[in-house]
Amino acid sequence: MSTYEDNIPTVKDNKAADKAQEKHMPGDEMIWLFLLGDMACFSLFFCMFAYYRLDEIELFRQSQAQLDVNIGSINTLFLLCSSWLVVMALKAARKGLAKYASFSMAGAALFGTGFVILKTIEYQHKAALDIDYLSNNFYVFYYILTGMHYFHVVIGVPLLIYYAVSLYRSKNISQTDVDNLESGALYWHMVDLLWIIIFPLVYLIP
Amino acid sequence: MLISIFSWVVGINHGMLFEKAFLESAAILILAFFKVRLVIMHFMEVGHAPTTLKLSCEAWVFVSCIGLIIMTGGQFQA
Amino acid sequence: MSLMDKLMQPMIGGALPVPADYAANELVGNLFTVWAGGFGLAVIPWALYCFFKKGNDIPLLMIFGGLVCSLIEPMLDHLGHLWYPTNLPGPAFVGYDLNVPYLIPPCYVFFISMTGYWAYTRMKAGLTVKGVFITWFLIAMTDVIMEMPGTATQAYIYYGDASFKVFGFPLAWGWLNGTSMLLVGFLLYLVEPYLRGWNRLFIIPVSVVAMGASYGMTAWPYFMSLNHDMPWIATRLLTLLSLALCLMIVRFTAAIVASGHEAKNPIEKLNGNPVPA
Question: Is the CB of C42 less than 8 angstroms away from the CB of A37?
């Protein structure tokens, strides 16, 4: 895997630039505890999904065919862009560029909102088809996995907006601000990476 | 980095080339976890973090990925 | 029904029967057990790491504290009209005619003790009044995130007409639980610097003492609204009163935490003495 990364020039540049602050712990220990706990729960869900799927493989395939892959793909893009903008915002904030960071954050929040809107539309389509979480075991998973993730996003977007507004207002950025920003960014990246797995697992796997 | 991630997303949506469903699932999952690892290492900056944290994250990616592939693959051994 | 009638409609309190025959979807029950309990199990390796590698015994002791603390869950459920279907994995124990499922003890480990410990680390690092309120809000949100998937899918239910339900989750539990977790952190912040040697073991009861105290202080209007006979509007107002009490308690906490950045000797602040440099 490392050879893959080395082919991407931007990564290399960052590495060289960040050499000075090597072994920097992003966020604090407790936020990582929360994130890893959250991620561990989700991986257990994923494994349970796979386990139940084996029992009812045909049912799962039929139900999966009813899902809208396009909305899911667009949402993947939205979250990736959003995550990337948060990275940009954090980098700008570290250099003290409050305005630039604020606009990046606002952009990230916008993509996050887009995700929420598309996902809501998708839920409405499902509701129109009289599908709810008790329809069958596939939909139990569909609603719990995507629904929990949806909650994470719904909580994350106001957080991003809060950061965008407070960055826009702030004249100078203190170390505490950067630390808080880091924790929020970590949370948002986790939301992104959970979707990166949920999407192929629930929507794509044949 | 962003572009490369995008290309994978597109690739996943259109590249259903494998004949066996199991191989395809495995490929999709491996790509997904590879992307996740990129997000963790670079977006979340774990690449420069203390070893314990880095190891925990790597372990999560590895264990979840292998676990899921085995679970989804079970259908063809049974 | 006119507005006045609606407002004054009599609400029957204590006579509510529990929905004893209600059963959750089994898969939903399993998933929710993983969700609510998984966090608690995930912190154990971390607590051991803190203890053996860093000599920090607080997380480990708080884990035991969380397990003890879970014993008061059925009391709160009974007063707060919460029902665990008997087909959830469990029971861990039975009390007040409630089957408390397996998920509760590990859930307390994370969502009372560890969030409390997090609040403690934040307070120790120094917080402004605003900072304490933000901490309180974030903690309350972790509770909402944890519970809503369970209530929305009816893995367990808050029965009866509780005030301000969203996806089956009465929002009052968000602020009540948030306050109790903040107070767990606050009590730890107050007593921890003075505990040495075997007295360290007193960290274990911190969770249950602070949580019980918090509910005594803030939750009684909400429990009244569920268990007394009263007009509809009174139930809502009492629930809002519990929010007001929570905000008051958080403000008191904030006043003490924010009065200085000296975390080694917090009691000095309570005495009103100038904090030694």
Answer: yes
Domain boundaries, given as residue ranges, for chain C: 19-271
Give the tens place of pLDDT for each residue, A159-174: 999 989 988 888 777 8
Residue closest to A160 by CA, chosen among A92, A100, A108, A97: A108
pLDDT mean over B61-66: 84
Structure tokens given for C216: 């005594």
> Tell me, what amino acid is at C210?
A
Question: What's chain A's average pLDDT?
Answer: 80
- Which chains are within 8 Å of B by 3+ CB pairs? A
Give the pairing type, strands C157-158 and C82-83.
antiparallel
Spell out the domain ranges in chain A.
Answer: 29-204
* pLDDT higher at A98 or C135: C135
The CA angle A101-A102-A104, to the nearest 5 degrees, is: 65
What does the pLDDT read at residue C162?
A: 83
Residue B70 neighbours by CB under 8 Å, 6+ apart = none
Output the CA angle C149-C250-C203, nearest 5 degrees. Answer: 80
The two three-digit tokens of residue C44, written as one number: 């154990």
Binary contact (A137, C27; C-beta < 8 A): yes
Question: What are residue C158's DSSP bridge partners?
Answer: C82
Q: CA A89, CA A97: separation in Å to the nearest integer?
A: 9
ipTM (interface predicted TM): 0.75
* Domain ranges for chain B: 2-77
pLDDT per position as a tens digit, A4-26: 333 444 444 444 444 444 567 77
- The partner residue sitting opposite A147, judged by closest CB among C42, C43, C152, is C152
Given a cut of 70, the residues of chain C with pLDDT beneath it are 1, 12-17, 260-277
What fold characterizes domain A29-204?
A: Four Helix Bundle (Hemerythrin (Met), subunit A) (1.20.120)
Residue type, C199: N
Q: Which of A33, A134, A143 has its CB closest to that of C46?
A: A33
Residue corresponding to tokens 């009812």: A56
- Whole-angstrom CA distances from C73 to A72, C85, C88 are 40, 15, 16
